[in-house]
Amino acid sequence: MKKYLLLFALFFNFFAAYSQEPIDVWSIVFEENAEKYYFVPMASVWFYDYENPEKLEYFVFGNGSNWWHIGKIPDKKYRAKIMAPGYKTREVVVGNLSSKPLGKERAATVHFKLEKSTTNTLRPTTYSIKNFEKAKKMNLWEVIASLKGLNIDKKTMEITTDNGKKVLWYLCGYTTEGEKKFSQFLKLPAETFGLLDMKFLFYDLSSQKSDVGGMLNLVVIGEFTKSFRSREIGEEPFEMYILKE
Q: On the CB side of 62, how many CA atoms lie within 13 Å of its CA?
C-alpha cells in the first residue's frame, strides 16, 4: 500500500510542477464583420494581477505579423484589458490557460474579439499638418518634434515623451516596429504628401503604468491609404482557445 501511495505522490507532484511551468502565450485581437474576421490595428493587450488590478504584469502591442506575444507567463488568473482606437475597451478575467506542447515548451493562443465604438475611451489628440505654418520647409520628424510633449532623436528617429518614455509610431494604423525602412519615412519633406494632407493622432498611455508613453499614428489622407486597410485573417495558427469569462 505504501508503495502505491508513494507512486501516487510522485505522479501528483510531477503534474503539479508541470502545471506551474510558464506558458508561451500568444494572442489575436480581431473584429467580426459580415461573417469575416479582421485584425484590429493598433490594439494592445494588458495583463494585470488578479488580486491587485492596479498592478500591471504584462502588456503587448500588435506587431507587423498581427500577433500579440504576451510572453512566457505563469499559468494563473489575470485581469486582461484589451484596447484599440475606435473600439470598445474590453476587460475579462483569464486563467487556467489551455495549452499544447510546442517543442519542449507549453504554448497557448488566446483570441479577443472587439466591437466598434463611436465613444471609444482611448481617444487621441489630433494635429493636422496643415496647422503648421512652416511645415512646407520641414521634414516629418521636425513636425513631430514640434508637437507638445514629444521629442525625437535625429540619428535613430526614436520618438519619446518628455519624461523619456518610448512612443510607438504607426503609419495609417500599421506598426513600424522592426522596420528600419520606416525611419527614412520620417526624414521626407512634409510637402511630399500633396498639400500636406496628413494628420497626427497621439494616444496618451501614461495612465496605463507601462514602459510605453503613447502611440502616434501618422495618417495620410487619400489614395495612399488604400494599401493600408486591415488585412483579413486567413488560417488560424495553432489551435483556437476561447477563455471562460
A: 23
